[in-house]
Amino acid sequence: MPVTPEQQAEIDALREAPRETLRTVSEGMERHLYVPHQVLDHGFVRVVDYMGDDAAICQAARVSYGRGTKSVQNDEGLIRYLMRHWHSTPFEMCEVKFHVKLPVFVARQWIRHRTANVNEYSARYSILDREFYIPAPEHLAAQSGVNNQGRGEVLQGEEAQRVLNLLREDAMRSYDHYEAMLAQDDNQQGLARELARMNLPANIYTQWYWKVDLHNLLHFLRLRADAHAQYEIRAYADAMCRIAADWVPAAFAAFRDYRMDAVSLSAQAVAALKRRLAGEVVTQENSGMAAREWREFQEVWG
Fold first, then answer.
1. Which residues are designated catalytic?
2. For 41, which DSSP code?
3. What would you give as a GO molecular function for this chain, any one (predicted)?
Protein backbone atom coordinates (compact mmCIF):
# COMPACT_ATOMS: atom_id res chain seq x y z
CA MET A 1 0.00 0.00 0.00
CA PRO A 2 1.65 3.31 -1.08
CA VAL A 3 -0.13 5.41 1.58
CA THR A 4 -1.13 4.18 5.03
CA PRO A 5 -4.61 4.92 6.42
CA GLU A 6 -3.02 7.35 8.90
CA GLN A 7 -1.24 9.22 6.10
CA GLN A 8 -4.43 9.36 4.03
CA ALA A 9 -6.34 10.77 7.00
CA GLU A 10 -3.71 13.49 7.38
CA ILE A 11 -3.91 14.30 3.66
CA ASP A 12 -7.72 14.50 3.81
CA ALA A 13 -7.54 16.81 6.81
CA LEU A 14 -5.11 19.15 5.02
CA ARG A 15 -7.26 19.31 1.89
CA GLU A 16 -10.41 19.96 3.91
CA ALA A 17 -8.91 23.03 5.64
CA PRO A 18 -8.18 25.63 2.91
CA ARG A 19 -6.76 29.01 3.95
CA GLU A 20 -6.99 32.40 2.33
CA THR A 21 -3.70 33.72 0.99
CA LEU A 22 -2.25 36.71 -0.84
CA ARG A 23 0.33 34.47 -2.53
CA THR A 24 0.22 33.50 -6.20
CA VAL A 25 -1.92 30.40 -6.62
CA SER A 26 -1.87 27.97 -9.54
CA GLU A 27 -5.34 26.44 -9.82
CA GLY A 28 -3.91 23.44 -11.64
CA MET A 29 -1.37 22.79 -8.88
CA GLU A 30 -3.97 23.23 -6.15
CA ARG A 31 -5.68 20.09 -7.46
CA HIS A 32 -2.46 18.14 -6.90
CA LEU A 33 -1.53 19.61 -3.53
CA TYR A 34 -1.00 16.84 -0.94
CA VAL A 35 -2.52 14.17 -3.23
CA PRO A 36 -0.31 11.04 -3.65
CA HIS A 37 0.08 9.75 -7.21
CA GLN A 38 0.90 6.05 -7.12
CA VAL A 39 4.11 4.98 -8.89
CA LEU A 40 5.38 1.39 -9.25
CA ASP A 41 3.97 -1.10 -6.73
CA HIS A 42 4.40 0.72 -3.39
CA GLY A 43 5.70 4.16 -4.38
CA PHE A 44 4.15 7.58 -4.83
CA VAL A 45 4.93 11.21 -5.57
CA ARG A 46 2.96 14.10 -4.12
CA VAL A 47 3.26 17.88 -3.90
CA VAL A 48 3.51 19.25 -0.36
CA ASP A 49 4.24 22.90 -1.29
CA TYR A 50 4.96 25.12 -4.28
CA MET A 51 5.71 28.72 -5.22
CA GLY A 52 4.88 30.62 -8.41
CA ASP A 53 3.12 29.97 -11.71
CA ASP A 54 3.48 30.92 -15.38
CA ALA A 55 2.90 34.59 -14.55
CA ALA A 56 5.71 34.52 -11.99
CA ILE A 57 8.14 33.51 -14.74
CA CYS A 58 7.12 36.50 -16.86
CA GLN A 59 7.11 38.80 -13.85
CA ALA A 60 10.71 37.83 -13.09
CA ALA A 61 11.79 38.18 -16.72
CA ARG A 62 10.33 41.69 -16.93
CA VAL A 63 11.16 42.50 -13.29
CA SER A 64 7.61 43.85 -13.13
CA TYR A 65 5.69 44.78 -10.02
CA GLY A 66 2.55 42.70 -10.41
CA ARG A 67 0.27 40.53 -12.50
CA GLY A 68 -1.66 41.70 -15.51
CA THR A 69 1.04 43.90 -17.02
CA LYS A 70 0.85 41.95 -20.28
CA SER A 71 -1.75 39.77 -22.02
CA VAL A 72 -1.82 35.99 -21.65
CA GLN A 73 -0.79 35.69 -25.29
CA ASN A 74 2.22 37.92 -24.70
CA ASP A 75 3.11 35.94 -21.58
CA GLU A 76 3.08 32.66 -23.52
CA GLY A 77 5.18 34.23 -26.25
CA LEU A 78 7.70 35.48 -23.71
CA ILE A 79 7.90 32.06 -22.02
CA ARG A 80 8.49 30.38 -25.37
CA TYR A 81 11.21 32.92 -26.18
CA LEU A 82 12.91 32.30 -22.83
CA MET A 83 12.78 28.54 -23.32
CA ARG A 84 13.91 28.71 -26.93
CA HIS A 85 16.96 30.82 -26.09
CA TRP A 86 17.91 28.86 -22.94
CA HIS A 87 17.24 31.66 -20.45
CA SER A 88 17.10 29.86 -17.11
CA THR A 89 16.84 32.33 -14.24
CA PRO A 90 13.16 33.33 -14.76
CA PHE A 91 12.21 29.64 -14.44
CA GLU A 92 14.21 29.39 -11.22
CA MET A 93 11.68 31.75 -9.57
CA CYS A 94 9.16 28.90 -9.33
CA GLU A 95 9.76 26.10 -6.83
CA VAL A 96 8.05 22.87 -5.81
CA LYS A 97 8.51 20.49 -2.88
CA PHE A 98 7.74 16.81 -3.52
CA HIS A 99 7.28 13.97 -1.08
CA VAL A 100 8.50 10.83 -2.85
CA LYS A 101 8.41 7.18 -1.85
CA LEU A 102 10.80 5.18 -4.03
CA PRO A 103 13.10 2.14 -4.10
CA VAL A 104 16.63 2.76 -2.86
CA PHE A 105 18.23 1.92 -6.21
CA VAL A 106 16.03 4.53 -7.90
CA ALA A 107 16.94 7.05 -5.20
CA ARG A 108 20.64 6.48 -5.92
CA GLN A 109 20.07 7.38 -9.58
CA TRP A 110 17.87 10.33 -8.65
CA ILE A 111 20.35 11.86 -6.18
CA ARG A 112 22.84 12.42 -9.00
CA HIS A 113 20.70 15.45 -9.82
CA ARG A 114 22.41 17.62 -7.23
CA THR A 115 20.60 20.92 -7.88
CA ALA A 116 17.87 20.31 -5.31
CA ASN A 117 17.33 20.21 -1.55
CA VAL A 118 16.81 16.70 -0.18
CA ASN A 119 15.95 15.23 3.20
CA GLU A 120 15.62 11.44 3.33
CA TYR A 121 13.94 9.12 5.82
CA SER A 122 16.56 8.04 8.34
CA ALA A 123 17.13 4.32 8.79
CA ARG A 124 19.51 5.23 11.64
CA TYR A 125 16.57 6.67 13.57
CA SER A 126 13.61 4.61 12.32
CA ILE A 127 12.95 1.08 11.12
CA LEU A 128 12.21 0.69 7.42
CA ASP A 129 8.95 -0.99 6.40
CA ARG A 130 8.79 -4.42 4.81
CA GLU A 131 8.09 -3.06 1.34
CA PHE A 132 10.11 -3.98 -1.73
CA TYR A 133 9.87 -3.16 -5.42
CA ILE A 134 9.17 -6.30 -7.44
CA PRO A 135 8.96 -5.58 -11.20
CA ALA A 136 5.81 -6.41 -13.10
CA PRO A 137 6.41 -9.25 -15.59
CA GLU A 138 6.39 -6.89 -18.57
CA HIS A 139 9.31 -4.95 -17.06
CA LEU A 140 11.44 -8.00 -16.33
CA ALA A 141 13.93 -7.93 -19.20
CA ALA A 142 17.30 -9.39 -20.18
CA GLN A 143 20.46 -7.32 -20.67
CA SER A 144 20.53 -5.42 -23.96
CA GLY A 145 23.02 -6.70 -26.48
CA VAL A 146 23.71 -3.24 -27.93
CA ASN A 147 23.38 -0.96 -24.89
CA ASN A 148 25.48 -1.76 -21.85
CA GLN A 149 23.15 0.20 -19.55
CA GLY A 150 19.82 -0.86 -21.00
CA ARG A 151 17.35 -3.72 -21.30
CA GLY A 152 16.66 -6.15 -24.10
CA GLU A 153 13.88 -8.64 -24.61
CA VAL A 154 11.36 -9.36 -21.85
CA LEU A 155 11.97 -12.61 -19.97
CA GLN A 156 9.36 -15.28 -20.56
CA GLY A 157 7.90 -18.34 -18.87
CA GLU A 158 9.94 -20.30 -16.36
CA GLU A 159 12.93 -17.98 -16.49
CA ALA A 160 10.78 -14.95 -15.63
CA GLN A 161 9.15 -16.83 -12.75
CA ARG A 162 12.55 -18.02 -11.47
CA VAL A 163 13.85 -14.44 -11.35
CA LEU A 164 10.69 -13.13 -9.64
CA ASN A 165 10.91 -15.88 -7.04
CA LEU A 166 14.56 -15.04 -6.33
CA LEU A 167 13.77 -11.33 -5.97
CA ARG A 168 10.94 -11.98 -3.51
CA GLU A 169 12.79 -14.65 -1.52
CA ASP A 170 16.00 -12.61 -1.20
CA ALA A 171 14.09 -9.48 -0.16
CA MET A 172 12.06 -11.31 2.48
CA ARG A 173 15.07 -13.21 3.81
CA SER A 174 17.09 -10.01 4.13
CA TYR A 175 14.26 -8.30 6.00
CA ASP A 176 13.79 -11.31 8.30
CA HIS A 177 17.48 -11.08 9.21
CA TYR A 178 17.17 -7.29 9.61
CA GLU A 179 14.38 -7.79 12.16
CA ALA A 180 16.31 -10.58 13.88
CA MET A 181 19.40 -8.39 14.28
CA LEU A 182 17.32 -5.52 15.71
CA ALA A 183 15.40 -7.73 18.14
CA GLN A 184 16.00 -7.16 21.84
CA ASP A 185 15.25 -9.78 24.46
CA ASP A 186 16.84 -11.46 27.48
CA ASN A 187 19.44 -13.14 25.28
CA GLN A 188 20.57 -10.29 23.02
CA GLN A 189 20.88 -6.53 23.10
CA GLY A 190 19.98 -6.08 19.44
CA LEU A 191 22.16 -4.49 16.77
CA ALA A 192 22.05 -0.74 16.24
CA ARG A 193 19.67 0.36 13.46
CA GLU A 194 22.48 2.17 11.64
CA LEU A 195 24.34 -1.15 11.31
CA ALA A 196 21.41 -3.50 10.76
CA ARG A 197 20.28 -1.51 7.70
CA MET A 198 23.42 -2.53 5.75
CA ASN A 199 21.86 -5.94 5.16
CA LEU A 200 18.78 -4.58 3.38
CA PRO A 201 18.44 -4.94 -0.42
CA ALA A 202 18.46 -2.03 -2.86
CA ASN A 203 14.81 -2.63 -3.81
CA ILE A 204 13.50 -1.69 -0.35
CA TYR A 205 11.51 1.54 -0.28
CA THR A 206 12.75 4.79 1.21
CA GLN A 207 11.13 8.25 1.30
CA TRP A 208 12.33 11.82 0.96
CA TYR A 209 11.33 15.43 0.52
CA TRP A 210 12.80 16.83 -2.70
CA LYS A 211 12.59 20.60 -3.25
CA VAL A 212 13.67 22.00 -6.60
CA ASP A 213 13.17 25.09 -8.76
CA LEU A 214 11.36 24.79 -12.08
CA HIS A 215 14.47 25.17 -14.24
CA ASN A 216 16.20 22.23 -12.57
CA LEU A 217 12.99 20.21 -12.42
CA LEU A 218 12.64 20.53 -16.19
CA HIS A 219 16.25 19.47 -16.63
CA PHE A 220 15.53 16.39 -14.48
CA LEU A 221 12.43 15.60 -16.54
CA ARG A 222 14.23 16.04 -19.86
CA LEU A 223 16.65 13.27 -18.85
CA ARG A 224 14.45 10.98 -16.76
CA ALA A 225 11.19 11.15 -18.75
CA ASP A 226 13.13 10.27 -21.89
CA ALA A 227 12.43 6.92 -23.55
CA HIS A 228 16.06 5.91 -22.96
CA ALA A 229 15.85 6.38 -19.18
CA GLN A 230 15.44 3.39 -16.88
CA TYR A 231 11.75 2.48 -16.61
CA GLU A 232 11.56 2.73 -12.81
CA ILE A 233 12.80 6.33 -12.56
CA ARG A 234 10.91 7.23 -15.74
CA ALA A 235 7.67 6.20 -14.05
CA TYR A 236 8.26 8.89 -11.40
CA ALA A 237 9.28 11.44 -14.04
CA ASP A 238 6.11 10.77 -16.03
CA ALA A 239 3.95 11.42 -12.96
CA MET A 240 5.86 14.65 -12.30
CA CYS A 241 5.40 15.70 -15.93
CA ARG A 242 1.64 15.49 -15.49
CA ILE A 243 1.85 17.58 -12.34
CA ALA A 244 4.11 20.21 -13.95
CA ALA A 245 1.80 20.45 -16.97
CA ASP A 246 -1.04 21.50 -14.64
CA TRP A 247 1.16 23.77 -12.52
CA VAL A 248 2.78 25.86 -15.31
CA PRO A 249 0.96 24.91 -18.53
CA ALA A 250 2.60 27.54 -20.76
CA ALA A 251 6.11 26.78 -19.50
CA PHE A 252 5.60 23.02 -19.75
CA ALA A 253 4.22 23.30 -23.30
CA ALA A 254 7.30 25.32 -24.31
CA PHE A 255 9.52 22.79 -22.55
CA ARG A 256 7.92 19.93 -24.46
CA ASP A 257 8.31 21.75 -27.79
CA TYR A 258 11.88 22.98 -27.32
CA ARG A 259 13.39 20.27 -25.09
CA MET A 260 11.50 16.96 -24.81
CA ASP A 261 10.27 16.66 -28.39
CA ALA A 262 13.07 18.66 -30.02
CA VAL A 263 16.25 17.39 -31.69
CA SER A 264 19.74 18.74 -31.03
CA LEU A 265 22.21 18.54 -33.92
CA SER A 266 25.97 18.77 -33.94
CA ALA A 267 27.76 20.92 -36.51
CA GLN A 268 28.55 17.74 -38.47
CA ALA A 269 24.90 16.65 -38.42
CA VAL A 270 23.73 20.08 -39.61
CA ALA A 271 26.22 19.96 -42.46
CA ALA A 272 25.13 16.41 -43.41
CA LEU A 273 21.46 17.44 -43.40
CA LYS A 274 22.19 20.43 -45.63
CA ARG A 275 24.11 18.20 -48.05
CA ARG A 276 21.21 15.76 -48.17
CA LEU A 277 18.74 18.56 -48.88
CA ALA A 278 21.01 19.65 -51.73
CA GLY A 279 20.71 16.16 -53.25
CA GLU A 280 24.07 14.76 -52.20
CA VAL A 281 24.39 11.17 -50.97
CA VAL A 282 25.80 11.30 -47.44
CA THR A 283 27.19 8.23 -45.69
CA GLN A 284 28.66 7.71 -42.25
CA GLU A 285 32.12 7.57 -43.79
CA ASN A 286 31.87 11.03 -45.39
CA SER A 287 29.66 12.65 -42.76
CA GLY A 288 32.34 13.39 -40.16
CA MET A 289 30.20 11.64 -37.53
CA ALA A 290 31.16 8.68 -35.36
CA ALA A 291 29.22 5.45 -35.85
CA ARG A 292 26.98 5.94 -32.82
CA GLU A 293 26.12 9.55 -33.71
CA TRP A 294 25.39 8.43 -37.27
CA ARG A 295 22.95 5.79 -35.98
CA GLU A 296 21.20 8.41 -33.87
CA PHE A 297 21.10 10.76 -36.88
CA GLN A 298 19.49 8.06 -39.01
CA GLU A 299 16.90 7.27 -36.32
CA VAL A 300 15.61 10.84 -36.65
CA TRP A 301 16.21 11.68 -40.30
CA GLY A 302 16.17 8.26 -41.97
1. 224
2. T
3. NADPH binding
| pLDDT tens-digit series, residues 174-220 | 999 999 999 988 888 999 999 999 999 999 999 999 999 999 999 99
As annotated, the binding site for FAD includes: 89, 112-114, 120, 213-215, 219
Tell me the binding residues for dUMP: 109-112, 120-124, 197, 224
Give the span between the Cα atoms of 126 and 206, in whole angstroms.
Answer: 11
Q: Which fold has domain 5-133+203-260?
A: Gyrase A; domain 2 (3.30.1360)
Q: What CA–CA distance (Å, rounded) separates 54 from 70?
A: 12
CB 117 within 8 A of CB 211: yes
Helix, strand, coil shares of the chain, percent, nearest 5, are 50, 15, 35
Given pLDDT bands bounded at 50, 70 and 90, which one contains residue 67? low
CA end-to-end distance (rounded Å), the chain: 46
Annotated binding site: 89, 109-114, 120-124, 197, 213-215, 219, 224
Domain spans of the chain, in order of start: 5-133+203-260, 136-201, 267-301
User: What is the band of 70 on the pLDDT scale with cuts at 50, 70, 90?
Assistant: low
